[in-house]
Structures are given as structure tokens and as C-alpha cells.
Specification:
Layout (H helix, E strand, L loop, with lengths): L1 H18 L8 H4 L7 H8 L5 E3 L4 E5 L3 E9 L10 H12 L3 E7 L2 E7 L9 E9 L2 E9 L8 H12 L3
Antiparallel strand pairs: 1-2, 2-3, 3-7, 4-5, 5-6, 6-7
Helix pairs in contact: 1-4, 3-5
Length: about 170
């Protein structure tokens, strides 16, 4: 029961992010999400080689034996939208109330977070996400590891987000 509820929360968080991205558009250089970060830059954070594949202009995905990676971008957003992070913080609070662990750090326009599932629910994955918010755009990188030992710390993913911030 708890796994289903936590999965619904994680899916809900993804839906909230998706709802915040109504109009998808092009990234710099290659006009797609895959141009936000190079495989070498991502590999530095993961400590594993990775190949990224475009899933359209707004989404780029890849995987290692221990983790899945997603790059995403959206533009054409309402510049007056709420960028306080209140919705995301509420989602992290729900994870904590269910016995999971969640952490968030803000670096100017970059917000990074980690989510660890409640004990015994490892199959849900260990998530680290960094997003960059600009007036009418948002872009991010998300890494979901299979185990806690393979989880990417915020401090390793944040430098990739810094590069993303300069590319869209």
C-alpha cells in the first residue's frame, strides 16, 4: 500500500513538473534537450559511461547499469508563474511523512533535490534532480538510481545543472 502511495506521489511530482511545462521548445546548439549536457559531463556526475538518446526536442534519456537519466526542457512559460518552489516543497514533505528522505538545495535559479524511498521500498528508485528556471523556460536533469549506494549526490549533479543554465 505504501509503495503505491509513494509511487503516486512521485508520479504526481512528475505531473506537476510536466504541467509547469506547457509549451516545449528547442535547446541551444542542437535545438533539443540532448544539447543541454554532454555524455561526458553526465558521466562525471555518474562515474559511469552513458549514451543519451533524443526522445524529441524536449526530452533526452539514457541509462547505465545502475541508473536512468533524463534531460528535459520547456520554453514559452508564463513569466509570472509561481517559481517559489512551494509545490515541490509540499511534495518533498509528503515523501518525508511517509518515512522517506528528501532534501532540497537552492543555488540561485537552480534547485536540486533528492528523494529516497521509505525503508524497504528500494524498487521505487533513488532520485536526484536539478532544474534551472528562467523567466519563460525551465530545463533539468534527473537521475534515478536503483540503489542508495548508486544515488548521485546533489553536489555531483549541481555542476551539470550549472552547464545547463548556460545553454538554454
Amino acid at each position: 500500500m505504501r509503495v503505491i502511495v509513494v509511487r503516486r506521489i512521485v508520479v504526481g511530482l512528475v505531473v506537476v513538473v510536466a504541467m509547469m511545462m506547457p509549451t516545449y521548445a528547442a535547446a541551444a546548439d542542437g535545438n533539443n534537450a540532448c544539447s543541454l549536457a554532454t555524455p561526458a559531463e553526465i558521466q562525471t556526475a555518474l562515474s559511469s559511461p552513458i549514451v543519451m538518446n533524443s526522445m524529441g526536442n524536449d526530452l533526452c534519456m539514457g541509462a547505465t547499469s545502475n541508473a536512468k537519466v533524463m534531460l528535459r526542457i520547456a520554453t514559452g512559460l508564463d513569466p509570472t508563474r509561481d517559481r517559489s518552489g512551494a509545490k515541490e516543497k509540499a511534495g518533498l514533505d509528503i515523501v518525508r511523512k511517509m518515512g522517506g528522505q528528501a532534501e532540497a538545495k537552492t543555488f540561485g535559479p537552480i534547485v536540486c533535490s533528492t528523494i529516497q524511498p521509505p525503508p524497504g521500498k528500494d524498487q521505487m528508485g533513488y532520485n536526484t534532480t536539478c532544474t534551472v528556471s528562467k523567466d519563460t523556460a525551465v530545463a533539468g536533469i534527473e537521475v534515478t538510481a536503483k540503489s542508495q549506494k548508486d544515488m548521485v549526490p546533489i553536489d555531483k549533479l549541481h555542476p551539470v545543472a550549472e552547464k545547463i543554465a548556460g545553454r538554454f
